[in-house]
# Entry
Amino acid sequence: MFDAHLHIIDPRFPLDGGQGYRPDPFTVEDYRARTAGLGVTGGAVVAASFQGYGQAHLLAALRELGPSFVGVAQLPADTSDSDLRDLHAAGVRALRFNLFRGTADDIDAQVQLGLRAADLLGWPAEFYLDSRRLPELAPVIAPLPRISVDHLGLSAEGLPALLDLVGSGARVKATGFGRGDVDPARALRAIAEVNPGALMFGTDLPSTRAPRPFAPSDVDLLTGALGPEQAERVLSRNALDFYGVPVPRP
# Structure
């Protein structure tokens, strides 16, 4: 399994952001313990709102986890091309724009950053948002060549708008099944019907602020909703393709 969405919260690095929210530590060692038995071969370490724009925590996590893991950085819009190249060399492969927790305030400026990162390094852009906002946001983010939306879009009401976005090529992270009011199985089937290559599964560990945290049974939920053949793609191949990670050797 390629875990397409996880967070590392290392107490060696101060938290900056998150409107005062301070989660418990969740180290690389904690992550490995929680995912033992899931067959994780790699993953995407995602910067969270409460970690602000600093990258030290993300780069440290990538060094400890190894080359099969990539980083998803949260950056200010004026980040230089030189800094983007340095982050790429350290294993970062995507940008995250947090429109749900309010860390990406100027969406037009963030889109320009996303376009620079895509042109320079081929990075996709990931959006944490409530899919009910997509009718207003879709035209703004449309210039970005590759995007994904976190946590099944969070909203059952917004699912039709999310499906429209999938129809235009967007990916969706099959993560955070305990977040929002989405029926995970229904959403998974609907997205896969539009594009079977769109879904990417992740644990969302340590599931900060989620009413229901990740459980290994979420993998069974996915397999039951999609069937074993499609589930295999969602658990690994789709995300490997999205992040440009080589397929692991048997």
